[in-house]
Amino acid sequence: MNVLTFFEATPDEVDAPTVDDLQAVTEDVWLALVGEDEVLLPRLVPPGTPFDATGVWSAAVTISGGWHGVVTVELDADVAGRLSARMLDLPSAEDAEDADVADAVGELVNMIGGNVKSLMPGPSVLSLPAVAAGRAVFASDVTEVCRIDVAWRGGPVRICIHVPNASGGSR
Prior knowledge:
Number of strands: 7
Shape: globular
Mean pLDDT: 86
CATH architecture: 3-Layer(aba) Sandwich
Order of helices and strands: HEEEHHEEEE
CATH superfamily: CheC-like
Number of helices: 3
CATH topology: Chemotaxis protein chec
Number of domains: 1
Low-confidence stretches: 1-12
Distance between the termini: 31 Å
Radius of gyration: 15 Å
């Protein structure tokens, strides 16, 4: 998967996974959840562009301990429904209830976050996923350090890693 990204901190700026790390983790998790015949395609998204779906599901997990960070996932609502149907073996996306979508999106961010956690210094713990039908809200004391923008079945998907600001305290 060739992922176009426009922001990545240099290793001197922050201790965080690279875009290549996030890309590899996301690709592995996606394949495990939906299979090899369902690939993610790169999306050209200019820097600073908000997530561009009209209906959105989002989720986040925090990593605390030897390393601190937040992993977020934002999905177009249609993508979230189709992903849920695929993961839960439902006949169609229309059969996915909100609780099903929340479970699937939560599991996606949990699996990506767990893999990111394993790449970073430990020991660390992973929070339970926070899932919302809508855009994620980020604390003002974190900075996005890497992001991938991809598409699945034509709908947008964004995965980001945020870390505490250097002036924001413990890391």
